[in-house]
Design goal:
It is built from 15 helices and 22 strands. The protein is an alpha+beta fold and about 450 residues long. The structure holds adenosine-5'-diphosphate (ADP).
Length: about 450
């Protein structure tokens, strides 16, 4: 087992990892940017090292600075959290070459799944349904038009190296396809350093269903059921729950088996997520695999009783899974809302600033994962996630009732946050009935402006 772990991240996930390490008796090293001196992860870790300026490139993406900190602090593992370097195969390789365990999958698995075209190809060969579309990067306009004619409009252009819901365009005709192609390629190059894009059929009004994978380095791979992440704005998740109101035991078994098969095909060993779109007619298709711990992991923890960060650390240390597939039980219901420092009434623009008044909800069925506190200054340089509010209950409706009253209690003043939006969603009969698809926020609540 590790004796000391450096957490190459910030915010709530750094706090989450530090807490798991403490409970495992592993020492922790926080790294932080000049803008994060007062952040909670810095206070909670056993040691803290400043690694650079406020911009992510100067600090949380600064590989030499992070590796130097790891060597100075003499750690034997690095946990990358999510975002930043968590899906950077090069970083994973550098860690290994410095004899520091990267707490995540192998660089090979990251690289393979990081290319959505290659990932789709591997899944297709493994017998997992994929969305019809181009099977290699789009070469030119004619290639795009030919693909669109074959699969028929609407189609979606996606970046092969894309993530975070960025770099996607839905197209309903040739003119739009041609104009969006150039934009997507340019955006993909600028955001992900890879201009490759592909075209696939746009599934209308689907649900986003993803399976949590847990795999060790000794060939054992299991799934921990699904999460439903259908409530999205512009392809970014706002609310996640487990189980899904749209998945019954039979479908869970089928999708879960295929998710495990996909992870095995990628030689996957860590926590990871296989994502699918579930169509209205009940068919489902692989969209991508995320090779990291995800923001929404707590809902799976709450219904399975497992600690996913501890499991991730154990398998990274070479331990075998302590649980078999038939021992996994899903109990009750868990829902997570992402509380962001954003103004939903103004295009979700980020609203950083100092928190003067802070009251977080508590009581039965409430879990808070956050790095903020009264007096904390939310810096403008990073993701605007302030907190994850997770509620549980015996049934979905129970978990919703706890969420309604927890959202009522929650106060973060004077910042503009997504709390009010969540209150609105949790009092909407359509959401409460669970009859939604991925366009729920953008179309039904009419909050997301069109692209
Ligand atoms: P990212 O890696 O940026 O998160 P994903 O491929 O995981 O991108 O897709 C994110 C979301 O975008 C999905 O949950 C879904 O809402 C939408 N999406 C992606 N591909 C399609 C598609 N072919 N049809 C309809 N919606 C899609």
């Amino acid at each position: 087992m590790f004796s000391k772990i450096l957490i190459a991240n910030r915010g709530e996930i750094a706090v989450r990892v530090i807490r798991a390490c403490k409970e495992m008796n592993i020492r922790t090293v926080a790294v932080y940017s000049e803008a994060d001196r007062t952040s909670l992860h810095v206070r909670l870790a056993d040691e803290a090292i400043c690694i650079g300026g406020p911009k992510a490139e100067q600090s949380y993406l600064n590989i030499p600075a992070i590796i130097s900190a790891a060597e100075i602090a003499d750690v034997d593992g690095i946990h990358p959290g999510y975002g930043f370097l968590s899906q950077n195969a090069h970083f994973a390789e550098i860690c290994e070459s410095c004899n520091i365990t990267f707490i995540g999958p192998s660089a090979q698995s990251i690289r393979l799944m990081g290319d959505k075209i290659a990932a789709k190809d591997l899944m297709r060969k493994s017998g997992i349904p994929i969305i019809p579309g181009s099977m290699s990067a789009i070469r030119d306009k004619d290639d795009a038009l030919k693909t669109a004619r074959r699969i028929q409009y609407p189609v979606i252009i996606k970046a092969a190296a894309g993530g975070g819901g960025r770099g996607m365009r839905v197209c309903h005709n040739d003119v739009r396809l041609i104009s969006a192609l150039m934009t997507c390629q340019t955006e993909a190059e600028a955001s992900f350093g890879n201009a490759d894009v592909f075209v696939e059929k746009y599934i209308q009004e689907p649900r986003h269903i993803e399976f949590q994978i847990l795999a060790d380095k000794n060939g054992h791979t299991i799934h921990l059921g699904e999460r439903d992440c259908t409530v999205q704005r512009r392809h970014q998740k706002l609310i996640e729950e487990s189980p899904s109101p749209a998945v019954d035991a039979k479908l869970r078994r089928k999708m879960g088996e295929l998710a495990v098969r996909g992870a095995k095909a990628a030689n996957y060993a860590s926590v990871g997520t296989v994502e699918f779109l579930l169509d209205k007619d009940g068919s489902f298709y692989f969209i991508e695999m995320n090779t990291r711990i995800q923001v929404e992991h707590p809902v799976t923890e709450m219904v399975t009783g497992l600690d996913l960060i501890k499991e991730q650390i154990r398998v990274a240390a070479g331990e075998s899974l302590g649980i078999k597939q038939d021992e996994v039980t899903i109990r009750g219901w868990a829902i997570e809302t992402r509380i962001n420092a954003e103004d939903p009434t103004n295009g979700f623009s980020p609203c950083p600033g100092r928190i003067l008044q802070y009251h977080e909800p508590g009581g039965r069925g409430v879990r808070m994962d956050t790095h903020v506190y009264a007096g904390y200054e939310v810096p403008p340089f990073y993701d605007s996630l302030l907190a994850k509010l997770i509620t549980t209950g015996e049934t979905r409706l129970d978990a919703i009732h706890v969420m309604q009253r927890a959202l009522e209690e929650f106060q973060i003043e004077p910042l503009r946050t997504t709390i009010a939006l969540h209150r609105q969603i949790f009092s909407d009969p359509t959401f409460i009935r669970g009859q939604i698809s991925t366009d729920y926020i953008d179309r039904q609540l009419q909050l997301g402006e069109s692209e």
